[in-house]
Amino acid sequence: MAAIRYRVAGLTLLFLHLVLVGWLTLRPLDVTWVTAANLEPLAGIKADLVLGPAEAVRRIGEALLLLAPLGVLLPLADARLDVAPWASLVRTVSAGALVSLGIELLQTAVPGRVVDVDAVLLNTAGVALAHLAVVPACRARLRRRMSGPGGGTGGPRAGAGRGSVLGRKRREGGALRREEGPQGATPRIPRVGIAP
Prior knowledge:
Elements: H1 2-25, H2 43-50, H3 53-66, H4 70-78, H5 85-106, H6 117-147, H7 165-172
Pfam families: VanZ
Organism: Streptomyces tamarix
InterPro entries: Teicoplanin_resist-assoc, VanZ-like
């Protein structure tokens, strides 16, 4: 039940964040001139550093923070606790990179916007940093809470009382055995002949 709540909350927040990102990045800009597209990695970051430390921190920070919430919202929308940390990181960073690339490609049709490969790099780095800073610790805390007494639901679950077999097996750490009767024949798929 908690996984469904996390998934709904994650999907809702993810949708709202992507709407905000789309509004910020895909609005036409009313500018008198536009710089050329930056297709050389790290050239835009070097140009930002030339503008001085305050302006460089502002520009680089904006690019890092734009998609950083995806590093937390994508795993939250997935709502699984038993995921390998590296697999989760790779999936989340890959999805963040694809979203950033999609935004950059869509900006080619928006007046006043240009493609910047450094924006993709910084957006992806922001997703990775947010994921590493928040997700492993939160998953570990939720796993501890779910494995604690009552499974974190605030009370014993149905059928998990002290006298029940399910409760006894859970306390002993043993595997649960299915004790219901047969539920019918296993469905079979008919063979399909090979066409001539």
